[in-house]
Design the sequence.
């Protein structure tokens, strides 16, 4: 009986802690899936297709991917998590070549996933000025997730326009 009671107490502590970070854990899970699909799309495009754009003045494939990478750092930075020292925010948009762009995207994805769990529950309601809107940190986390999903949709349209089938829908 003592072992059962101890096990129940341990499970209560574990479940309580898991629920303490429920928002962060959920957002991280959804974002991880979206990021994986964006990377799969990035890998499915040919090197030549990285310069393709649907019309003048609209981001190319490569520019859209770099925009996602830059936004990952930007949103995290606004919430108090500066990018790694080796990341030059002013140079992200100047990265060229499929492999280099994918590497930059993956690095930003890993960084932003790491920052999500650093946002404390008691700070989720802290207001942040993101430049484009004032919202709390919870809104910032949701913006990270939504922004990645928005550009996943954009890249799916780009892929279909170029005869590239999203790898997960084959």
Sequence:
């Amino acid at each position: 009986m003592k072992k059962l009671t101890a096990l129940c107490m341990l499970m209560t502590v574990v479940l309580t802690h898991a629920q303490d970070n429920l928002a962060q854990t959920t957002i991280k899970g959804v974002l991880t899936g979206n990021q994986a699909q964006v990377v799969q799309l990035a890998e499915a495009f040919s090197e030549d297709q990285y310069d393709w754009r649907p019309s003048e003045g609209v981001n190319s494939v490569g520019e859209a991917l770099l925009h996602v990478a830059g936004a990952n750092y930007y949103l995290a930075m606004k919430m108090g998590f500066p990018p790694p020292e080796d990341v030059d925010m002013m140079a992200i948009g100047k990265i060229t070549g499929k492999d280099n762009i994918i590497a930059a995207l993956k690095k930003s994805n890993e960084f932003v996933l790491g920052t999500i769990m650093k946002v404390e529950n008691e700070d989720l309601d802290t207001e942040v000025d993101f430049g484009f809107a004032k919202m709390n940190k919870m809104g910032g986390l949701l913006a990270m997730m939504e922004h990645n999903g928005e550009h996943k949709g954009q890249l799916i349209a780009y892929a279909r326009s170029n005869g590239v089938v999203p790898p997960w829908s084959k």
Observations:
- The mean pLDDT is 91.
- The longest strand covers residues 127-129.
